What we know:
Elements: E1 3-9, H1 15-29, E2 36-42, H2 54-62, E3 84-87, H3 90-99, H4 103-106, E4 109-111, H5 133-158
Parallel strand pairs: 1-2, 1-3, 3-4
Amino acid sequence: MTYRICFVCTGNICRSPMAESVFRARVSEAGLDDLVEVDSAGTDGWHEGDGADPRTVSVLEEHGYDGTHTARRFQSSWFSRLDLVIALDAGHLKALRLLAPTPEDASKVRLLRSYDPAAGDDLDVPDPYYGGLDGFEECLEMVEAASEGLLAEVRERTEGQVA
């Protein structure tokens, strides 16, 4: 049985594709490729069909991650096939929970930084879109830090499963 995770930000060109790429690498490093499916989407469809922001691609590739991506919009119907929906900030969390068809689906939505014990109360990954490259670097650092905790949870949930 495949465990499915979708990372969600606003336009699906900065934060969520970065989280998708980093977490996919963590899943691969952990040998869980056959058990875990990772993708991303946006709460809005402004950039559907576009690649990731060039700054996202640059930062990902500079750090050894895959920068290949095509933006898409999150659909309510996806909740039924997803095990976990990871929001990149509180606005996404709220939008996704409102979009969820059932309370069970709404409970699948979590904030990414809730998996980083060092994050404290500041659980938003700031949107780097309107800033410089340093914001994208900061975003990557936050995503990497939270990915370790998320991977631990995914390992726990997939333990003993065979693809």
